[in-house]
């Protein structure tokens, strides 16, 4: 395929991927703890280089990254609603392995474990977190204590924590996959969140960090770029057709 047509094709495919992400972000603008997805693609120069090496028909090289900026917090007053004020993710055990979430609307299951709304165990530093009496008190460091009564009554002054919520972080540019239900999987290494940068807030939930206005601007820009690439491809095709016809007439 001609290099010019190859470059425009790859650009249009990348634009289509961006539109898909914008649609997903807008659909989750009201989802608790949702982090918007961003498509990061090739530079124009790399697309040209790929076209020159006969890679025109391949899919565009791009990755989907998560915008990890925190959302605003809203108070719920529920003892098992928790939010993070800085970078980090709660770790959750799923059937597919470890996953991560900022959607902190947890609950207790029949065994007294802290779980997500779908029943996946929320992990502590030493594994699953179990509360025998079901009166959780969670401090800003994520330590989980057993309260003395419903409603978050404080534990005894010398009471040791039952566990501590495991809060991890990963690189801003790490490739992630949304698994649904507020969970993401990470392709790469995760590490414990840095001390002092993140606090756990009991009785709060985090709003989505999606701005509908920002997504609409992104959508308009992407569609205009797609249209310009489409016009470039059409114009080049017409120019090539005219040149071939003139060469035929001359012959």
From TrEMBL:
Q: Which InterPro entries match?
A: Flagellar_FlgE/F/G, Flg_bb/hook_C_dom, FlgE/F/G-like, LlgE_F_G-like_D1
Q: What is this protein called?
A: Flagellar hook-basal body protein
Alphabetized UniProt keyword annotations: Bacterial flagellum, Cell projection, Cilium, Flagellum
Q: Which segments carry the region annotation Disordered?
A: 54-73
Flagellar basal-body/hook protein C-terminal domain mapped to chain residues? 201-245
Where found in the cell?
Bacterial flagellum basal body
| Superkingdom, natural source | Bacteria
Chain ranges of the Flagellar hook protein FlgE/F/G-like D1 domain: 83-135
One BP annotation, GO:
bacterial-type flagellum-dependent cell motility
Chief place of localization: other
